[in-house]
Amino acid sequence: MAAASSSSPPRLAVRGLTKRFGGLLAVNGCSFEVEAGSVVGLIGPNGSGKSTVFNLITNLLHADGGEVLHDGVPIGGLSLHKVARRGIGRTFQEVKIFRELDVWENLGLAALGRGLTDWQDRATSLMADFKFSHLKHETGENLSIGQQRLLEVAMQLLVQPGLLLLDEPLAGVHPVVRDTIADIIRDQRRQGRAILLIEHDMRFVMDLSDRVVVMDHGEKIADGPPSEIRANEQVIEALLGASHRPSDQQGEH
């Protein structure tokens, strides 16, 4: 993990974040930080509030309480475009690419959206790193789910965000792609990027994360290094007991 300067604010600071959906308190006073050059895993049962936290950080949803700071600056009132311009990238559970366009065109549109004009060399390098140079002219709809996820990550990294939010990047992917994604995360951490990761593959999260934040019923119940999280009885109960809970009728919040 790259050490952050003691005088620098964390790349991301979530302070007392709260969100209600009608009578449901989806996120309740959640606080944590992500330093530059670190990976933080965000885990918990389905419906625990993880994706809602991502949506609050990126202003897809507006918080009912608390605040989000990026490099020490509150960003709660910014438009989606301005959040992205600050250097915050994000992937989704449902892959968001342009399926009718080919890989190269998808990367070009990602660059255009951030006003980049000199992007081609970096795009070529990313395709090589992600092992899909041979798919340059393949349309998104013809890619496997793993290749689509890699393309979505590449589109975000093309514009070199300081903070990258990954929402279940392993969902539906082949084990080979899993290893590629792990290598990408390690490489981005070495480059000083801050990464916040939602993932249900606990071995993946524990192997890659410097710290793990655990949510249950909208609240943070633990925050610490993987070794502590593995031994935390409250976390074990939350994760193992989740399979016996009734389904959340309002979906994953």
Automatic annotation (TrEMBL):
<protein>
    <submittedName>
        <fullName>ABC-type branched-chain amino acid transport system, ATPase component</fullName>
    </submittedName>
</protein>
<dbReference type="InterPro" id="IPR027417">
    <property type="entry name" value="P-loop_NTPase"/>
</dbReference>
<dbReference type="GO" id="GO:0016887">
    <property type="term" value="F:ATP hydrolysis activity"/>
</dbReference>
<dbReference type="InterPro" id="IPR032823">
    <property type="entry name" value="BCA_ABC_TP_C"/>
</dbReference>
<keyword id="KW-0547">Nucleotide-binding</keyword>
<keyword id="KW-0813">Transport</keyword>
<dbReference type="Pfam" id="PF00005">
    <property type="entry name" value="ABC_tran"/>
</dbReference>
<feature type="domain" description="ABC transporter">
    <location>
        <begin position="12"/>
        <end position="242"/>
    </location>
</feature>
<keyword id="KW-0067">ATP-binding</keyword>
<dbReference type="GO" id="GO:0005524">
    <property type="term" value="F:ATP binding"/>
</dbReference>
<dbReference type="GO" id="GO:0005886">
    <property type="term" value="C:plasma membrane"/>
</dbReference>
<dbReference type="Pfam" id="PF12399">
    <property type="entry name" value="BCA_ABC_TP_C"/>
</dbReference>
<dbReference type="InterPro" id="IPR003439">
    <property type="entry name" value="ABC_transporter-like_ATP-bd"/>
</dbReference>
<dbReference type="InterPro" id="IPR051120">
    <property type="entry name" value="ABC_AA/LPS_Transport"/>
</dbReference>
<dbReference type="InterPro" id="IPR003593">
    <property type="entry name" value="AAA+_ATPase"/>
</dbReference>
